[in-house]
Amino acid sequence: MIYDQFENLDKHSQWGIDFLERYAKFVKERLEIEQTYAKQLRSLVKKYCPKRSKDDEPRFTSCLSFYSILNELNDYSGQREVVAEEMGHKVYGELMRYSQDLKAERKHHLQEGRKTQQYLDQCWKHMDNSKKKFERECKEAEKSQLIYERLDNDINATKSEVEKAKSQLYLRQHMAEESKNEYAAQLQNFNSEQWKHFNVAIPQIFKNLQDMDERRTVKLGEMYRSFAEVERRVIPIISKCLEGMVTAAKNVDEHRDSGIVVESFKSGFEPPGDFPFEDFSQNIQRTGSDGAIGTPKTEGGKADPKHAVGRTKNKLWLFGKKPKIPPSIPPPSLPSFPSGHFHPPKFSTERIANHLSEMRNAKSKIPSFRTVKRGAPTLEDLSHLPPEQRRKKLQQRIDELNKELQKEMDQRDALNKMKDVYEKNPQMGDPGSLQPKISETICNMEKLRSEIHKNESWLAEVEGKHGSRSERRSSADVNHHAPHGRESPEGSYTDDHSQEHRSPPQPDPHEFDDEFDDDDPLPAIGHCKALYSFDGSNEGTLVMKENEVLYVIEEDKGDGWTRVRKQGGEEGYIPTSYVEITLEKNSKGAVTYI
Predict the structure, then answer these.
(1) Residue pair 401/451 in contact by the 8 Å Cβ criterion
(2) Which helix (DSSP H) or strand (DSSP E) does residue 529 occupy?
(3) Which of 8, 76, 388, 578 has the fewest other C-beta atoms within 10 Å?
(4) Is 296 a residue whose pLDDT tops 70?
C-alpha cells in the first residue's frame, strides 16, 4: 500500500504531464522541419521551372523529362506539407489538448485528496481537544476530591466547608464524566473517519490518479503510432512521385531530340546544284591536240588574269570559303576528249549570276542564333524566315485569326439576337443602344477577314514556291541522264536554247485566290497506323493514341508532318515517323513506309 505516499504521487503525476508536453514539443519541432523542407523544395522547383510561355518552351525529351521531375518534386514537397499538417492536427494538437485535460483532472484529484486530508486533520484536532479537556477535568476532579477528603478529616473544619467541598467534588466529577463521554465520541468519530480516509477516500483518489497516468501512457503510445502512421500514409504517393521521376528519366530519347533539332532549324531551301562548265575556247584555233581544253582568253587572244581572279573570288561556297586542298593530294586534272567526239555546250554567265544570287539570298534568309538572341525586328509577311518556318508561322497566324473571327461572329450573332429580343420587348432595353456595338463588331470582322486574306496570299506564295521547287527537282531527276542536256539556274535540265536568257518565272498573283474558298473535306489517299502515342500539344496537331488507325489526307511535304483525319472527322498534323503509312493504289500506288 502507498496510502502514505500522496506527495510522491503528486510529483509523479506532474512528471508524466511534463513528459507528455516534452514529446509534444518534439513533434512541433519535427513538423517545423517538415514545413521548412517543403518550403525549400517548392522554392527550388520554382527557381528551376521555366518562366517562358508554353510556346517558347523547348520540346526536347531531356527538357520535358526534367520538367516532369520538377513536377514530381513539387508533388513530393506537397506530401511533406501533408505530413507536417497531419502532425500538427493529429499529433501535436491532440497532445496539447490532452495535456490541458490531464492538468485539470490532476488538479481535481489532488484537491479531493487535500480536502480529505484536511477533514481528517480536523477530526483529529477535535478528538485531541476533547482528550485534553477530559484530562483537565479529571485532574480538577482529583484535586477536588483531595480537598474534600482533607476537610472531611479535619476536626476544625466547619460543616459548611465540608458541604461546599463535597458539592465541588460532585461538580468536577460530573464535568469529568461529560468530558470523558465527549472524548470517547470524538475518538470514535476520528477512528471512523481515519478508516474511511485510508480505506475508501485515499484509495479512490489514488486509483483515479493511477487511471489518469495509465491513460496518459496509452495516449502517448497512440501518439507514437499516429506519428508513424502520418509518414506511412504518404509513402505510396511518394513512391508514385519517385516512380514518375524514373519514368521521366526513361522517356529521354536522344533520337527524338535530334529530330526536333532538325525540324526546328530546317530552312526548306534546296541544296545548290552543280555549277555548269563554261567553255570559252570555242572560237580559238586549236593547235596540237584538238581534244585539249584551252584556257579562256580575251578577244585579243590573251588571258585576262583579272577576269579569272575575279571569278575565283566571287565563287560562293555553302559554308564559307573553299577548303584548302592538302599539298600532298595533287589537284584534279581536267579531262581531255578526243577531237571530234566532244561538243561543248554553250552556257550563259547570266545563269551563273542568277544561281549565285539565289544562294546569297538563301544564306541571308537563314536566321542565326545571334540574330534571334538580339531580338532582330521581324517583317509582317515573315519573309525573313526560311520557307518551311515561314509556312508554319503563317498557318499558325491564320488559325489564330480564324479563331478571333469566329469569336467576333459569335458576338455579332448574340448582339443580333439581343436586339431582336429588345425589339419584341421594348421594356427590356433599347435596341438602338446595341447598334454601335454591332457596327464595331462588323468592322472588326472586316479587319480580320482582310488580315486572313493577306496572310493566305503570303501562304499561297510560299506554298507555290515550294511546289514549283519540288516540281523542278523532280524534273531534274527525270532529265538527269538526258544527252547533250543543259543545266538551268534552278537545277533542272532543258534542251531549249531560248531559255538561257529568260528571267525566273513569276508566280501568278491570282493563282491561289480560290484555294481557300473550298470547304469540302480533302479525300483520303490512304490510311496509317500509330506506332506511338502523340499528345498533340501544339497548334494544328492532332492527339493520337498507339495502334490508332487514321485516314491520310495529305502526304509529308518534306517537313516531317503528315495531315490525317480521325474517324470522327477531326483533322490535324502528326509526326510522320510516329506512324506506318499505307497509300491507296488508286492514289499513288501501294506504298508503305514508316
Answers:
(1) yes
(2) strand 526-530
(3) 8
(4) no
Cell output for 30: 519535427
Side-chain-facing half-sphere of 334: CA atoms under 13 Å: 9
Nearest Cα neighbor of 550 from 537, 535, 536, 569 is: 569
Q: In Å, how far are 343, 351, 472 from 346, measured between CA atoms?
A: 9, 12, 21
Architecture field, domain 5-256: Up-down Bundle (1.20)
Q: What is the 3-state secondary structure (H, E, C) of 245-256?
A: HHHHHHCCCHHH
DSSP collapsed to 3 states, 388-457: HHHHHHHHHHHHHHHHHHHHHHHHHHHHHHHHHHHHHCHHHCCHHHHHHHHHHHHHHHHHHHHHHHHHHH
Positive or negative: CA dihedral 405, 407, 413, 418: negative
Average pLDDT over residues 131-160: 87
Class of the CATH domain delimited by 526-583: mainly beta
Determine the Cα–Cα distance for residues 584 and 563; give it in Å rounded to an integer.
Answer: 15
Pairing of strands 592-593, 579-583: antiparallel
Q: Tens digits of per-residue pLDDT, 502-529? A: 333 344 444 444 444 445 677 888 899 9
Where residue 286 falls among pLDDT bands split at 50, 70, 90? low
pTM of whole model > 0.70? no
Q: Is 593 helix (H, G, I), strand (E, B) or coil?
A: strand
Q: What residues have CB less than 8 Å from 27, skipping those under 6 apart?
A: 87, 91, 92, 95, 223, 227
pLDDT at 335 over 70: no
Residue type, 563: R
From 260, 264, 299, 293, select the one nearest 278 (Cα to Cα): 293
List, as one string, the DSSP characters of 469-524: HHHHHHHHHHTTT-TT-EE-TTS-EE--GGGTTPPPPPPPTTTTTTTTS--SPPPP
End-to-end alpha-carbon separation of the chain, Å?
Answer: 92
CA-CA distance, 90 to 79, in Å (whole number)?
16
Sorted by where each begins, the domain ranges of the chain are 5-256, 387-464, 526-583
What are 51's three cell numbers? 518562366
User: How much of the chain, in percent, has pLDDT values that exceed 70?
Assistant: 71
